[in-house]
Specification:
about 625 residues; alpha/beta; eight-stranded mixed sheet; four-stranded antiparallel sheet; 21 helices
Length: about 625
């Protein structure tokens, strides 16, 4: 079979494939076997699947020739570039093997600067299975050994632009033929083309005037300001999956005992969603009550647009505003600059609170949660500015993939063997950190009147639906996060199971309950503590994996992958595990039409942010 493929390709190509061609045929064959036996795609002996297999071989081998052919007379350069080509292919294949999805160019485009942080590189490497690399490296070493043992004569090869153009044409023809194939480098190029050229047409460009602000809202009834304004703490924990709240492991150990005990003292929103899958997007929704961008990041691309933020509104009514980030970089996602631009007086990162020489208090992504809380309170004591109320945002980052916990700090699994067990050890440290936070709070009577919101930046999947990576997931476990609101002597403790809310609702909830909602604003959420909450759809955005948008009109959850047009419909009441796709079920046409149409809101949000039409300057 391999000989037939190689001979067939040689007829079409201007230059012999050589040993690297044979190596790539072996690698592709191993990959296709994985694809079949892992269930990513079951191959059958039918023309369609045979064509997909042939298609994949043609693409990977023509790609090799595009690298090899121009360098036939430069043996060392040719060997080096062919080796690099093989290793790049192995990297993409390793990602497919680990995630069962092709690597999406949007991940690179949205996070290019952040990729070069050491902690980010570690996360990327953690997302690749090394098996393909081992095969590639062994093959390259064998080729090198044989080349050195039997050096070939340097025969001059004349380069033909016509032949090269023929190879390039064949590659383009196969690359852009709309068929499922498994050359992962080509799939990456396809996703790049989709990122730049296949975005859905934005109908709002025509229908919305330049001086129009559809999100602008006027508060009709201004409430009298509170005589004693509470201090406000907003804690956004890294990667906090609500599936670990009030749950036990297989041995009966409770994952978050302290957090569970605090639920009894406040208002807990049972069905609460993060709007996307990245920290910077979750923070944006929480602090600005707007959906994040489908493509791009507001913090990096639209920092100087007009926004009404939660810290700005609180600052306007007399609050001192603080942002404490457990991460140890000031430039990551341009967060510091964005926060200082939009209402925070003070922005500090972990290493500005505590010296990094205290190794036991640091992880790869920043200061440990418990130490971060101690340092925050110590800082607030030293920075006491009279009797002004404080708005304090804290974003711990220690609990981050790959969730590595030092052996001496592991409480649930001494030898964690899976990502779920590593996550469990790490989330227990988060829970221990909550206890430290409240212990420190109780030591300081000046904070006796404090409104506290504990939530997350985003969730994290730990194996449900066989998904372990944020840039892939689109099921509930990739978006459901906790939301606990505490305000002693002001709230009646309860668990709200009757409504669904999201990060968009946090800012208006805080402002409504301290009577600080501004006359003009653009907040898209609502007061979660109000007596008459409006039933509104919740929108979720997976910017990667082909870009998946979601609209939840409970109990129905509708999703669409923009790149391929794939659709899903789930009834979360009857099918909470999302096992049965109802998209083709007869009788759902009216419901589907409404849900499909509702996704236009996501594009409207994108358009208004890109064109700075969220709120006019006069209403800031």
């Amino acid at each position: 079979m391999l000989k037939i493929i190689r001979n067939g390709v040689n007829i079409l190509m201007p230059s012999p494939l050589g040993p690297f061609g044979k190596l790539l045929i072996v690698i592709m064959t191993v990959q296709l076997l994985f694809v079949h036996f892992s269930g990513v795609h079951y191959f059958r002996i039918i023309p369609r699947d045979m064509w997909r297999i042939f298609h994949s071989y043609i693409l990977i081998l023509s790609g090799l020739l595009l690298v090899k052919y121009p360098l036939e007379n430069y043996k060392r350069a040719s060997f080096s570039l062919q080796s690099l080509f093989v290793l790049i292919q192995c990297a993409f294949i390793g990602y497919l093997v680990k995630t069962e999805q092709s690597f999406d160019y949007a991940v690179v485009a949205d996070n290019f600067n952040e990729i070069f942080y050491s902690e980010s590189l570690f996360v990327i490497l953690n997302g690749m299975d090394p098996t393909a690399f081992y095969i590639g490296i062994i093959g390259i070493v064998i080729i090198l050994f044989k080349t050195l043992k039997r050096p070939t004569l340097n025969k001059e090869v004349s380069f033909s632009l016509k032949k090269y153009g023929g190879v390039f044409s064949i590659y383009l023809l196969f690359a852009f033929t709309p068929i499922i194939q498994f050359d992962e480098l080509t799939n990456f190029f396809r996703s790049a083309a989709a990122f730049y050229f296949q975005s859905p047409k934005n109908k709002f460009e025509i229908s919305i005037r330049e001086d129009s602000f559809p999100f602008l809202t006027q508060t009709l009834e201004q409430k009298k300001p509170l005589q004693e304004k509470p201090h406000i703490f907003l804690i956004m924990v890294e990667s906090f999956n609500t599936g670990f709240v009030n749950q036990k492991d297989e041995d009966g150990n409770i994952y978050t005992p302290y957090f569970n005990s605090m639920i009894k003292k406040g208002v807990y929103i049972d069905r609460f969603y993060g709007t996307s899958v990245q920290t910077v997007k979750g923070h944006f929704s929480t602090l600005f009550s707007l959906l994040p961008l489908i493509k791009g990041k507001v913090y990096k691309d639209y920092e100087h647009n007009n926004f009404k933020s939660l810290p700005r509104c609180l600052k306007d009514v007399g609050y001192n505003t603080f942002f404490f980030n457990g991460h140890n970089s000031t430039g990551f996602d341009n967060t510091r600059s964005m926060m200082l631009t939009h209402g925070f007086d003070t922005y500090l990162i972990g290493k500005e609170l505590m010296d990094e020489s205290f190794k036991e208090s640091w992880g790869s992504w920043g200061l440990s949660d418990d130490e971060l809380y101690r340092q925050v309170f110590n800082y607030l004591e030293k920075d006491n500015k009279g009797n002004s109320p404080k708005f304090i945002t804290i974003t711990p980052s220690y609990h981050h993939v790959p969730f590595s916990v030092p052996r001496e700090k592991r409480e649930l699994y001494e030898n964690p063997f899976s990502i779920k067990s590593r996550y469990a050890n790490s989330i227990r440290l988060v829970d221990n950190g909550f206890k430290v936070f409240f212990d420190e709070l109780k030591k300081r009577p000046e904070f006796r009147n404090s409104l506290i919101v504990i939530t997350a930046d985003h969730a994290f999947p730990v194996g449900n639906h066989n998904i372990y990576f944020n840039e892939i997931g689109y099921y509930e476990e990739s978006f459901r996060i906790p939301c606990l609101i505490l305000w002693e002597n002001h709230l009646i403790p309860r668990v709200d199971k009757n409504h669904i809310f999201s990060q968009l609702d946090i800012a208006p909830t805080i402002l409504e309950n301290i009577n600080a909602l501004p006359v003009f604003h653009h907040f898209q959420g609502q007061d979660m503590l109000g007596s008459s909450s409006e039933k509104k759809p919740v929108f979720l955005i997976q910017p990667y994996n082909g870009t998946i948008l979601c609209s939840i009109d409970f109990p129905f959850k509708y999703l669409k992958r923009l790149r391929t047009g794939e659709e899903w419909l789930f009834n979360l009441d009857e099918d909470p595990l999302e096992n049965e796709n109802l998209i083709d079920l007869p009788g759902n046409n009216i419901l589907l039409d409404e849900l499909r149409k509702s996704l236009e809101y996501c594009f409207l949000n994108q358009y208004l942010i890109e064109n700075n039409q969220i709120i006019p300057t006069d209403n800031l």
